[in-house]
């Protein structure tokens, strides 16, 4: 009735907002009430703080209704705020005129061809005719409310009874409770709970409750590119898109919606069998297949992107790949065999459809046309079960797919063979040692160490999913690593070469250096994950903008690394490591403070610069502390151990920060993750303070 986005002229509008003529300095913010489809528009001004709450009372009846109601409620949180209401509907996409009938000073009826709109207000809002439209201006004080109900109903139908504030706010509570109750069916307990819940609510809003059919989008006439002509009407149910959406809801535990869509698909398959011309790629939510397309020349389109289209002429296209999606959705929703696809009538319709599909496939394969994305043999996966009747018999479903599809599976094989051939020409710079036995490599130790670390990292990642799973994985990882060290001692006692010699851990100073090496990488890797995820997911910045901010950390790392040799001549290794940890921890604190105080992406640069400077200060000194404890003959071993410790810090750093962050991404998760990383920075600082001020130049051969 409004279609405001299709152009500012000749389109309608229904606006309830703060009166900008009386209060020009207004900041507007909009959000969803968490866990619901209720929209809250917040107005912030020097005169006060006000809100407009929009919701649609859910109709859970399986019978289609000819009445639809939206409630808009205005309330003031602080101060005294003026409001304005404008209701200017445009029936039949602006092609039909309407008349106004005044019911009383709180209610009017706008009459169009075949459909009317009743507008009813409560509180101090008094409706006044404005030609064939209606407006209202009113002022609310703190804690005062006013509501406006808009009810679409058939022409001549009895108007709804006059509501009051109490009834409308009771409807609000019922609407909120409905969404809370609906979300309880979700089985998802992962780290992206808020985002997944919002996506599920959106899919539910796009679904027509009486039939279970979800539309592709609630828009029409909006262009893919500004000024372009690709502005289609998406308010229909595409078989492919709807099947994927319903499959997502099944995965989240919303099986009622899946069963409803399954019945809808069965009805479409039965009608396709009756018409003998297959499924349409899209339908109306009530199953209607005639979706004639027309343009609206009176509307200039969104930002001049004409023409504005109603209906969709693509409904007559033939796309064979939708049958696989329809069969897949029906099978995925399979659960109750009574009355749906598993009933004899439904299965017979499905069998006839597959016979028709196989004919079309064979015809197009014979004429050289492109094959469909899903071969008819996939329909055979639904196979006959008791009561389903025969399989499709018109054609053999065991035929192999066309050669084009078979060849697609092996197109990468020549490339793989070429890579293997080229690797044969590479020469190893180190010749093999003929005196080294073939079984000298500690394969058991390699497997045990890798398995233990994988279990530890996986346990950390499982922290926000299942505490018991996390505990079990961490315990298992610790047990495997304990077994790994036991295996090493066993090899050493037997005189064999282990993966990792225990003698590498006998030097106290070297051990302290290894301890500092873990948080050196844990902290920056955790910070990069946390800041990157926060900027892109919460703040909505692009990957390019996020990468630009991290340039500050890169510059800091380069600056301190280039001056490492000069600094090492003036300061001890211990001093540089301590200063590096202190600078890195300070950078984390700056990130916490500035991000809360400044709402700008560049508020992240000072903290990231300090973290880069701190990391560059301590990288080389920390490695020197570890390696200087061993003679040249063991530098290869200790270098490998030092690098492994660094990698050990990188993986848990990302895992720990990510687990804390995504547990509550938009509600303190960023601060909690950064504080956790700062704690590890303090641990590294404590280990650095235990290092001796001077390190002997030589060390005995071990």
Helicity range of the residues?
Answer: 40-55%
Strand composition percent: 5-15%
Cα-atom Rg, whole angstroms?
A: 34 Å
Give the beta-strand count.
17
Q: Ends: how far apart?
A: 86 Å
Helix tally?
19
The backbone outline, from C-alpha atoms, is globular
* Class derived from helix and strand content: alpha+beta
Q: Tell me the domain tally.
A: 4
pLDDT below 50 for ≥5 consecutive residues: which ranges? 335-342, 370-412, 695-702
Name the average pLDDT. Answer: 78
* Biggest sheet features: 11 strands, antiparallel
Provide tags for this entry:
about 700 residues; alpha+beta; 4 domains; eleven-stranded antiparallel beta sheet; two-stranded antiparallel sheet; 19 helices; about 15% strand; disordered C terminus
Fold and architecture overview:
- The protein is an alpha+beta fold.
- The chain folds into 4 domains: 4-183, no CATH class; 193-404, no CATH class; 441-500; 501-689, Up-down Bundle (Growth Hormone, Chain: A).
- The chain is built from 19 helices and 17 strands.
- The strands form 4 sheets. Strands 1, 2, 3, 4, 5, 6, 7, 8, 9, 10 and 11 form an 11-stranded antiparallel beta sheet that branches. A two-stranded antiparallel sheet has the order 12-13. It has a two-stranded antiparallel ribbon with strand order 14-15.
- Helix 12 packs antiparallel against helix 17 and helix 12 (508-538) packs parallel to helix 18.
- Residues 335-342, 370-412 and 695-702 have low confidence and may be disordered.
